[in-house]
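Throughout our pipeline, every protein is held as a single compact record rather than as scattered files. This encoding replaces a full spatial description with a residue-level series of whole-number codes. The remainder of this section carries one protein's record, kept here as part of the documentation.
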Amino acid sequence: MRGTYCEAEEAIGATARGAFLGLGSNQGDRAENLSAALRMIDAIEGVSVARISSVYETEPVGYADQPAFLNMVVRVRAGLSPEKLLDALKKIERDLGRTHGVRWGPRPIDLDILLIEGVRRDTSRLTIPHPRLTRRQFVLVPLAEIEPEVELPGGVSAGGLSAGVSEDVRLVGSLDELLAGANEDTRIDPEAN
């Protein structure tokens, strides 16, 4: 990403707000899907990725007959409206092959706005904070990893609601480690022949 947290804030400007985004993938090369989405988020005009959680593997919620997800949370600085940020995230989902079918069904990428500092929205198109944020460990655990004191609806902190790593939310490692591991798994060993 573009650099440290302070550099990201400076690059976007004083009007930017901190926002937390949830990323998930359970189709195709899940780690590469997350990586591609991160690069595309960081390339949005007026947005800069500031912090990145580890990657966690979780079982699907809502529709169980599908592969496990890789999930993570990122903090960004966004100098655009929540609606414009949502539009940009939906475009990234489409560009990475997401089509809308079964609700909560399999998808190469899922991008959600979880929180935006100082913003509340409740429209037919966008609800901030995310309406299921406080009930989803697959976002609470990575959110608490990068910002445990962030206040959630009801006045509780992410760290206070997070159950931590468990059988349901398994730490996989950093995205860089996952991508490096995938490259090692596909590398041809000349000594094997």
